[in-house]
UniProtKB/TrEMBL annotation, chain A:
<feature type="compositionally biased region" description="Basic and acidic residues">
    <location>
        <begin position="30"/>
        <end position="40"/>
    </location>
</feature>
<keyword id="KW-0805">Transcription regulation</keyword>
<dbReference type="GO" id="GO:0006338">
    <property type="term" value="P:chromatin remodeling"/>
</dbReference>
<dbReference type="InterPro" id="IPR027109">
    <property type="entry name" value="Swc4/Dmap1"/>
</dbReference>
<comment type="similarity">
    <text>Belongs to the SWC4 family.</text>
</comment>
<keyword id="KW-0804">Transcription</keyword>
<dbReference type="Pfam" id="PF16282">
    <property type="entry name" value="SANT_DAMP1_like"/>
</dbReference>
<dbReference type="GO" id="GO:0035267">
    <property type="term" value="C:NuA4 histone acetyltransferase complex"/>
</dbReference>
<feature type="region of interest" description="Disordered">
    <location>
        <begin position="1"/>
        <end position="40"/>
    </location>
</feature>
Automatic annotation (TrEMBL), chain B:
<dbReference type="InterPro" id="IPR055129">
    <property type="entry name" value="YEATS_dom"/>
</dbReference>
<keyword id="KW-0010">Activator</keyword>
<comment type="subunit">
    <text>Component of the SWR1 chromatin-remodeling complex and of the NuA4 histone acetyltransferase complex.</text>
</comment>
<feature type="region of interest" description="Disordered">
    <location>
        <begin position="202"/>
        <end position="227"/>
    </location>
</feature>
<keyword id="KW-0804">Transcription</keyword>
<dbReference type="GO" id="GO:0006355">
    <property type="term" value="P:regulation of DNA-templated transcription"/>
</dbReference>
<keyword id="KW-0234">DNA repair</keyword>
<dbReference type="GO" id="GO:0000812">
    <property type="term" value="C:Swr1 complex"/>
</dbReference>
<dbReference type="InterPro" id="IPR038704">
    <property type="entry name" value="YEAST_sf"/>
</dbReference>
Length: 481, 282
């Protein structure tokens, strides 16, 4: 380190000899030197290098930090503890939650719309005995199944797991998942099909298709997926190899066919009637043409080929009869002449249907015994059961579902009456029994009418004919009590 | 395929829309005096015509000539008429007659005797038979029409079923017509050619005149008043809508009843359980 004279002097505190003249000069270079001492590098380094310090090293880039992100509202959000109404609830319980002060207090609860209920299928006794009888399923087991499905919301894996029917038939238990699904969906389909449907055909068909379940197909599908998952590595390798070979073969065939057709075209000219084959056309061309080709050779096989290839060219179209197409013109022609076409291919060995008035084809009420009741039901709506204002084919077709709906309504009314009557009798019996047990304590109530009543009740269980007798008797005894 | 062969065209049905029915007028005093039997009160015409009405015509239907496929129409009237079997071989296929309607006490007495029943009311059943041209190879068809003389009334209204003559005369002619379609199934080619050579005029799409009244649509009574009625495609659509509405209504009714049945069944099983427990206890 160079110790300058000034340094020595200052250390030793010797006064400067010529303070005014020399020191400014010395100071200047010193000051100049010191002033240039940059902040980027240490003083010692600077002293070493001197003023030739590279400018870049003297100045490091100030770290440009990212500004703190200004998160939205610099303002404060107010949260409130609010009670809210849940539209999905039926019991009116008011819960509360934190909600932003800015939202409106009575907005709909957004999660309410996710509370979807699945369609429930409930069948009556009558419907069961009419439509849903099955060899492998008793009514109790079917009821149990439906109860479970309802409880577990249609989640069949859970239903299958919890399925534990107490009096299980040993022939058919344990019930597999496919068994219970099959039974459930077939019951639902039968119900949808046989109940009168308010709505149009399309929605009914859509519902039916959503309830479709093919048991054997499901079993094979699941088995297939299981097999797929449990392939050994060797099997996988083998499959891949086979697939590659298949692709190669297909490619070869395509190339072969392309070459053949090009050859044909060059030999016989563009007008040979062969349509321009797209590269991977397999259709009619492939199987029918190839064997002929192989048998007869190139040149001679053109003639028999042309009838096979249905193309738009005139030569070919004469050989094949035109398929009857329903164009708009022919449809208009039919409407003008009041012509309806039916499928002519059905074997009609049936004798000729003679000419008739269309009103004679208005569907009749079956069973004929219920005609009057059906007519009454229809009368209330303002429809005649056997006459139409305009008996066109379409209106007559519309009569059919109307009549069947009316039939179902009549049947349902009958079963309602029956159930109501049974209920009345049962209630009367219950009241009588209760009255009887109350009376037994006192002991001197007239025993005979009640005994008679009891006996009559036993009869009513056995036969329906006694029902009216029983009811009058029970009212009599009730009045006495 | 030669077209005059007796070969049936398979898979084809062809129909022709027709109407049949009658129109009835009350006779004026002068007309009554002009008749040989002065106690007749009404005149009426029963006819079989094409369903489409000619524009500006004063009859119902009849725009097309049906004689290309109808050979003959017979109308069998009530026995009290002379020559009750009336045959019409050429268009227009109709029969006009006058009739006698008795009222009040005479009607009461007459109603007791079946023979005079028709006469006292004037209305009776006419048997109509249509015979087709030979090329059709078809048998004749028979159907019935109840001759309507008295104006239509809404059931359950205050008006009497048979208004007195002067009131009836003011109400204008009474129309009772039924639309129908004669359907030929798989006709002979020759007959088909005849039919296609005379395409029927289509029914007008919308209503321009009163609607012919029909008992199957009691709501159309108001719309049927005030002029010569006409059949339209709109009537067909309206009926289709009514049938559809009926079907939906019946389905809803069914569902409602079903709910009730299920409720009652539940109650019933409950009561039965209580009975069981009651019988076990005692």
């Amino acid at each position: 380190m160079a110790a300058s004279a000034a340094d020595v002097r200052s250390i030793l505190s010797i006064p400067t000899p010529s303070a005014s003249t020399s020191t400014p000069q010395q100071k200047k270079p010193q000051a100049a030197e010191r002033a240039k001492k940059p902040d980027g590098i240490p003083r010692e380094l600077y002293a070493l290098i001197g003023p030739s310090a590279p400018a870049i090293a003297t100045q490091f880039a100030k770290p440009r930090l990212k500004q703190k992100p200004n998160l939205g509202s610099g303002g404060r959000v107010k949260w409130e503890w609010r009670p809210f109404k849940n539209a999905a609830r039926s019991d009116g319980l008011r819960l509360s939650h934190w909600a932003k002060g800015s939202t409106e207090p009575d907005a709909d609860y957004p999660w309410a719309k996710y509370n979807i209920q699945t369609a429930e299928y409930v069948y009556s006794q009558d419907e069961y005995s009419r439509l849903l009888e099955d060899q492998e399923w008793t009514k109790e087991e079917t009821d149990y199944l439906f109860k479970l499905v309802r409880e577990y919301d249609g989640r069949f894996y859970v239903v299958h797991d919890r399925y534990d029917y107490p009096h299980a038939d040993p022939r058919f238990s344990p019930r597999t998942l496919e068994d219970i699904k099959d039974r459930y969906f077939s019951v639902c389909r039968k119900l949808v099909r046989n109940r009168p449907w308010a709505g149009d055909e399309a929605s009914k068909n859509a519902l039916l298709s959503s309830l479709s379940f093919d048991k054997s197909r499901e079993i094979t599908r699941k088995q297939y997926v299981k097999d797929l998952e449990t392939r050994t590595p060797e099997q996988i390798i083998e499959e891949d190899a086979l697939y590659l070979e298949l692709e190669k073969l297909k490619e070869n065939e395509r190339r072969f066919r392309k070459d053949r057709d090009e050859l044909l075209r060059t030999l016989l000219g563009i007008e040979s009637g062969l349509p321009d084959l797209p590269i991977d056309d397999e259709g009619l061309q492939g199987p029918s043409v190839e064997p002929k080709k192989k048998k007869k050779g190139v040149a001679s096989s053109v003639e028999p080929q042309t009838p096979i290839t249905p193309s738009a060219s005139n030569v070919i179209s004469l050989a094949q009869p035109q398929p009857p197409k329903k164009t708009a013109k022919s449809a208009a022609y039919d409407i003008l002449h009041c012509i309806t076409r039916t499928d002519a291919s059905q074997a009609t060995k049936a004798p000729h249907q003679p000419v008739h008035l269309r009103s004679t084809k208005i569907p009749a009420v079956k069973p004929p015994g219920a005609t009057q009741r059906v007519a009454q039901v229809l009368n209330e709506i303002g429809i005649s059961h056997n006459r139409l204002v305009m008996p066109t084919a379409e209106n007559i077709a519309r009569m059919e579902p109307v009549l069947s709906s009316a039939n179902s309504v009549v049947d349902m009314k009958k079963s309602l009456d029956k159930v109501e009557q049974d209920l009345r009798i049962a209630k009367a019996r219950l009241a009588a029994l209760r009255g009887e047990t109350a009376e037994e304590g006192s002991g001197d109530a007239p025993q005979t009418p009640m005994e008679v009543e009891e006996g009559a009740d036993a009869e009513s269980v056995a036969g329906d004919r006694a029902q009216s007798v029983v009811s009058t008797k029970s009212t009599r005894s009730r009045r006495q009590i | 395929m030669a077209s005059s062969d007796r070969v049936r065209v398979k898979g084809l049905d062809i129909h022709r829309p027709i109407i049949y029915g009658n129109t009835a007028w009350v006779l004026t005093q002068k007309e009554r005096e002009a008749l040989p039997t002065p106690d007749h009160t009404h005149r009426w015409t029963v006819a079989v015509r094409s369903a489409t009405s000619a524009p500006d015509s004063d009859i119902v239907g009849g725009a097309d000539d049906l004689s290309h496929f109808i050979k003959r129409v017979t109308f069998k009237l009530h026995d009290t008429y002379t020559n009750p079997n009336r045959t019409v071989d050429k268009p227009p296929f109709e029969v006009s007659e006058t009739g006698y309607v008795a009222f009040c006490l005479v009607a009461e007495y007459a109603r007791l005797t079946a023979r005079f029943f028709a006469y006292s009311w004037g209305e009776f059943e006419i048997t109509i038979r249509i015979m087709f041209v030979q090329e059709s190879g078809e048998k004749s068809i028979t159907f019935y029409h109840h001759l309507k003389l008295h104006p239509w009334t809404a059931p359950g209204s205050g008006e009497p079923e048979i208004p007195p003559l002067d009131v009836a005369a003011k109400m204008g002619p009474v129309h009772s017509w039924q639309y129908d379609e004669i359907v030929f199934h798989e006709p002979y080619q020759a007959f088909l050619n005849i039919l296609t050579a005379h395409p029927p005029k289509p029914l007008p799409k919308t209503k321009r005149r009163p609607v012919p009244f029909h008992t199957a649509n009691p709501g159309s009574l108001e719309a049927s008043k005030g002029g010569v009625p006409e059949f339209t495609q709109e009537m067909e659509k309206e009926e289709a809508e009514r049938l559809e509405a009926a079907r939906v209504q019946l389905a809803k009714e069914y569902q409602r009843l079903q709910l009730q049945v299920l409720q009652k069944e539940a109650e019933l099983s409950q009561v039965k359980k209580e009975i069981e427990s009651a019988t076990q206890v005692s």
